[in-house]
Design a protein that fits this description.
Elements: H1 2-6, E1 10-15, E2 23-24, H2 27-43, E3 49-58, E4 61-68, H3 75-80, H4 98-108, E5 112-117, E6 123-130, E7 142-143, H5 151-156, E8 165-169, H6 173-183, E9 189-193, H7 196-206, E10 211-215, H8 223-230, E11 238-243, H9 248-258, E12 261-263, H10 268-280
Parallel strand pairs: 1-3, 2-7, 8-9, 8-10, 10-11, 11-12
Antiparallel strand pairs: 3-4, 4-6, 5-6
Amino acid sequence: MLRRLIGDHVRVELVLDARPGVVHLDRGLLEQAVVNLALNARDAMPTGGHLVLRSAVREGRVVVEVRDDGAGMSREVRENALEPFFTTKERGKGTGLGLAMVYGFVEQSGGQLHIDSELGRGTSVELSFPRSERRPELGAMVIGASRDRTESQDATASGEMLRTTVLVVDDDPLVLQTLALGLEPEGYRVVAAETPAKALRLAAALGGVDVVVSDVMMPEMNGPALVEALREIVPDAAVLFVSGYADADLRETIELKSRHFLRKPFHPDELCAAVREALRLKSEVTEIPSQRIPAENGT
């Protein structure tokens, strides 16, 4: 699959350590992280180049490296590369969430991320995780929770730390994952939905939602219309809208009605602070009409 995504103009080389390196994390998220890094590397080599995917076991850690011989990064770009929504690509060519999502996943997994890059000398991104001495499952090198879960399983997962339920809705998969990863360190029970329809099904299955974090402009139903529908299921949920949509009238309508609006781009700390504020003022949130906002695709 990776070779098909990268294209024939880039030579892909695998350099794998023969020693077993067992780590306990979400296998699906690790695979997505490697794909994101490989696609970034491909974009840095538009006329072709060499991409190396390397694994190593050293000093009690398992290391995954993605290295390219592309354009490289300046010091300024390197220092900002992990910030959400930061991108050097042309408008419409990238969200600026690839590296931020990878960084969020690595931190959540107790790992470390290191970038080595210079202009004209390519880029190396290393992900390292604590090596586990636990015996792996049969046939598994990297062990993690399966991501093939049903909506009812997502809705009923619970734990001692997961007291406040946050339903996150965004039709952009990278934005959705970044929002979820940004909120999980707060100890929330975060449930993600990539469509308003799935958000409604999850809310019904959950039986209770404390905060809804929703994009404004989505293809099948806009954010305020979704919240109006959710009021029938979770009438007491606080609401936080996140969007890059710049229309002043739309922002004024949302801010007046919900009091909670966060404009993209923003830092994860700002997201967490906005959710905390929405929870604090939860009892003051009122129903939000949707008729003034067109239901069309965009953010």
